[in-house]
Amino acid sequence: MNCLVTGGAGFIGSNLVDKLIEDGHRVLVLDDLSTGKEENINEKADFVKWDITKDWNESSITIEEIDVIFHMAANPRVQPSIDNPIEFHNANVNGMLNMLVAAKDAGIKRFVFSSSSAIYGDVEEKDLPTSELSKINPISPYALHKLIGEQYCKLFSKLYDMETVCLRYFNVYGDRMNLEGAYKLVIPIFTEQILNGEPMTINGDGEQKRDFVHVDDVVQANISAATSDNKFKGEIINIGSGDNRSVNQIADMLGKERVHLDPVIEPKATLANNKKARDILNFSPSKNIEDWIPSWKKEMGL
Q: Which of 49, 3, 50 is nearest to 23 (CA)?
């Protein structure tokens, strides 16, 4: 395949690019390097530094020979989107729409959109695990942006006969997680604090649970979505581990000293029902976080 990966210098995107190239595909990476890193980009990939919020007509990028677009570029994270809703909307909605229009105009065969389990919002424990038919209740601009992206995918499939598929990631971890800046996830936050000799900071009581899914499994789900014989018309598919751990449990795995801060706006628990992913993508998570953390601790010198 000829593939385009937006956000291909980022955490998930660069892991996908590596696997695509390993499998013999050609890859074009688009990234503005605002959160991604140039050193993450596979040297065998073509790279164009590009801000997806810009008018595509101003670019000289040729994508007519691309078979599939993996749209991963986004301003991630819940809390920063609450603090900066306009900035996040521009990247996550306007940028995504720009790429959909570019794909339509170029006649791209398939568009794989990186969505988020944040769309489900604060789910009561009795309603877990969440399936693609579960109630959606975005409680942050970021979650709403991802929902809008899904709806745009479905609409473009209906209006323009494009094949689109939306993968709702749960909490992704693994190599190249962002260890700097405002967009760190809980494991990198704890890691940085331990390395600095500081206690781990936990929002609220720490009993909030997350479905942690390894980046290698997310990469495989993307490739399966791109190569599937299914004719996708805005299909939504959960990509999680089907298991969850509390923030306190993660803290226990990494270290002992911690302090509790005031709670923030976030779901109490996430947990994926992966039946649809199994049935359509033959998806089966291969890794779990308890087995992975010891290797992470060794790598980071914790």
A: 3
- pLDDT of res. 264: 86
- The catalytic position among 142, 152, 169, 173 is 142
At CA 127, angle to CA 125 and CA 130, rounded to 5? 110
Question: Among candidates 126, 117, 120, 137, which has minimal Cα distance to 241?
Answer: 117
**Predicted confidence (pLDDT) at residue 272 exceeds the cutoff of 80:** yes
Q: Where are the beta strands (DSSP E) in 75-229?
A: 110-116, 163-169, 171-173, 200-203, 209-210, 212-214
Distance between CA atoms of 182 and 78, rounded to whole angstroms? 11
% helix, strand, coil for the chain, step of 5 = 40, 20, 40
Tens digits of residue pLDDT in 55-79: 988 888 999 999 999 999 998 877 7
Q: Would you say 266 and 189 are in contact if contact means Cβ atoms under 8 Å apart? A: no
Specify whether 120 is catalytic.
Answer: no
- Verdict on whether the full-model pTM lies above 0.85: yes
Q: How far apart are CA 37 and CA 15, in angstroms?
A: 12
d(CA 27, CA 68): 10
pLDDT at 180 over 80: no
What is the C-alpha to C-alpha distance for residues 233 and 223, in angstroms, rounded to an integer? 17
